[in-house]
Amino acid sequence: MILSSIVFLPLLFALIVAVWPKSNTIRHLALGLSIVEFILSLALFRQFDPNSAGLQMVEKFMWIERFGIQYFMGIDGISLWLVLLTTFLTPIIILGSWTSITERVKGFHVAMFVLQTAMLGTFLAMDAIFFYVFWELSLVPMYFMVGIWGGARRIYATVKFFIYTFAGSVMMLVAIIYMMYLTQEATGTMSASLLDFYKLKIPFVGGTFFSLQTLLFFAFALAFAIKVPAFPVHTWLPDAHVEAPTPGSVILAGVMLKMGTYGFMRWVIPLFPEASEYWAWLFMLIGTVGIIYGALVAMVQPDVKKLVAYSSVSHMGYILVGLFAFNAYGMSGGLYQMLNHGISTGALFLLIGMIYERTHSREISKYGGLAGVLPLFTIFFFIITLSSIAVPLTNGFVGEFLILLGTFQAEPVFAYFAVSGVILGAVYMLWMFKRVFFGEKGELVKDEHHPLHDLNAREIAVLVPLVIMVFWMGLFPNHFLNYSKASIDYLVNNRSNYNLTIVEPGATSTQHAQGGN
Amino acid sequence: MNMNVGLSDVLLISPMIALFLVSLIPITAKVLRGNREQPHAVTLAQALIGIVIAIGLLIVFGGGGKTAFNNGLIFDGVTQWMGIIALGAAGAAMVMMYENPSTTGKQFSELIFLAMSSAVGMLILVSAVDLLMVFIGLEMMSLALYLMIAMSHEEKLSKEAALKYFILGSFASALFLYGVAFIFGSTGGTNILAFMDSAAELVQTSRLFLFGITFVILGFCFKVSIAPFHAWTPDVYQGAPTPHTAFMATAVKTVSFAAFLRVIATKSLIGSDHLFDILQWLAVITMILGNTAAIIQNNFKRMIAYSSVAHSGYLLIGIITAGVSDNGAFGASGVIFYLLSYALMTLGAFAIASMLEKSENHIVNVDDLAGFAKQRPMLALCLTVFLLSLAGIPPTLGFFGKFYLFNAAIGEGLLWLAIWGMISSVIGVYYYLRPVVVMYMKEGNAEVASHSLNATTVTTVIMALAIVIMGFVSGPIFSAVEKSLF
Which PANTHER family does the entry link to (chain B) (predicted)? Predict the structure, then answer.
């Protein structure tokens, strides 16, 4: 029952927070509960077998029998890290929001925990309808988070966010229902189980646009591409990021965007192998354009938060390119980059939130010379900047390197262009860094009425785990990659005949490795 | 015609009899007390007891597929489910009437009597398989409603609404009756069961029958507000006192769809391509028009009225599905399940609107909800649940309603209708979110009316809980509905 506990405990926490009578201890309570959740998720490692490509710790029973819809959860090397990313970031976000969320504190933490359940459920659900329920549920708390605690244009941003992502996913629902009927045709009984979907051989005739597989492929891909967000359906993201409160931005960049790229790995690529291959150029193109376009737009942003938001478009483009390279480098690079982006961009948004709390401005031109005033803040910001521009020994390097390696192997043309993103990334981040931290002291920094204070103990406690992860993942990538290697290898090698199996508890790992490959 | 009415017939119609008898209690009491109202709470309690008895009798005696009164009425799964939904909705609407300022005046006993008479008409309608019986049910239900709307004292809009509803409702009835005459002319009878097996052929061979069935269907399109016959809906829904609107939008719509379903179940659609095409387009137009028109509404009731037009469009997809499939049970149970979810969430939305009305002529606009979440967090949460459910966001019941409905449509090969349905639900999200935005994200001091509203509050909370909980157990409910239809 470990997966169900991990997914639904936050929902219980949300209830506890909602009925908690003392308003002044809600933050402590929420922090404690989220740490419990994180520790519980660490217990996954005790049961997880890294040598197996199969689905582990499976829990399933019939939910809606009439249509073969199951309550079906399982974990493998692909979802493992995304689950941990979610549980790892949540306590950090709660601690980080300590002083930035001052109104309706209870509601905020309720939303936070509901969102956590929705995200974890999305990563672990192995039944299409079950998955869809979590997928859509995640919109609701995020909608409130931006809409209630956000900035001046929060309502525009939150409605745009909701409608964009909702519009993207309704076609996926139609496609899911259609595929349920395909399972009925193939086996006689209807099923929404992902494992049964994998067994479908959906016709793909000559790659024409109207082949069934292509249509279903695009129905799914659109939903995921909007979530990623891939160019040109990315426009909701900068708005949402800029208007969201700091914790909202962190959770959005840190986890929610990964739901899109995860969707490509889990659903699109193995379910529609021929269509994915045929249209891979399109998604690599979209990814590459996203990399360059995001970087160029980031460069000219006067608002530091918007800059980071556009850098997300660029970074997420890498992941898309890596996934559609269809080789072990590209795929594992893509997965690694998902984690990296969660950590580095999450940290950047936290840092920006901290300085915003002090100055109530995010305009780059009003800063300058911060390094002299806030040395500790500068050091942290610098480390994260290095990670974001993928300097060797940081986590970002490993991800981008693997992705580019994979892309060169698969489609060198795209790699030539994608690699420019590395340089552009360095340009906009370092240029921003220079303008904010060095040079003349800007009007906000030398404001004598409001002297700036360096990071306090709480803020350091927020940032230290993230910095540790930056170096840990940068120095010892195998600690992480080893856990997903079997799953990724299996996905790469058996893409056209993907047949995820359920690993029974207690079986020896060597058998799975054989069975998996 | 050989008319044998026995005890079994009386047992079958016992819900109607019970409901009618109980409806007499409040007005009798009023007469006996020298034209003085008994306490409103007592009247309400009597009405609710009547409804509970009727539901109980419906469960015990209905549902066996038996016919009564010379095949004029049938008591099968559709009767049972639709009847229960309609009666439940009527009960909830009466609770609202008890506490709404424009309905709780001096004539409360009469009002409850009329509402219950209307409910008797509804029970006839859900079980009628003779077109004339359908007509009787329709008229009995509607006449009581015209009076109910016109009865409210001051409100100018409600007189207008009553008149509009009366004229257009009569027009719809006339259209329906005209169609029945044609059908009688071509088949020599008006009983649906009689021409059930031959209808698919008749629409092809007999022009007269095709005319007849078309007019009957158009009559229903008026009743359930399918575009372009929906024009009365927003005006009447807005003008009528809110509890009446809730009554019309849920109970009346449910039973009208039940009767619609019975006519469609004759398989006329399979016979006639044109009829099928026309209905498909009507569904598409209704969904798009209802949803787009709702976007620009500021009046809360008007917005929900347009939303209910859009939901009629979704339901029409289910009706078409039931009509074209060999085994209509799947499509029909999709419709029933959707009506169940629709009734709960629409009643909820109107209940909130009813609570916000401070006086008889008070008009609730969406902007008035500003700050509602701070003042009444519980009710705001309930309204959020209703709106998310109306928009079809999981894991609410509304999502599963859409899922089953579209699932049936896709199963019958009506993929493009399901896609249209999905596209229009995206449009719908835009306006369903607006009250949520205003409630939670705008400053203001929305207050519910000052007098006590306990009963309505309890009903609202129950409905919100039902929407969340039933979402998780929707599978067994759906299966139960489907099984009862075989």
Answer: NADH DEHYDROGENASE
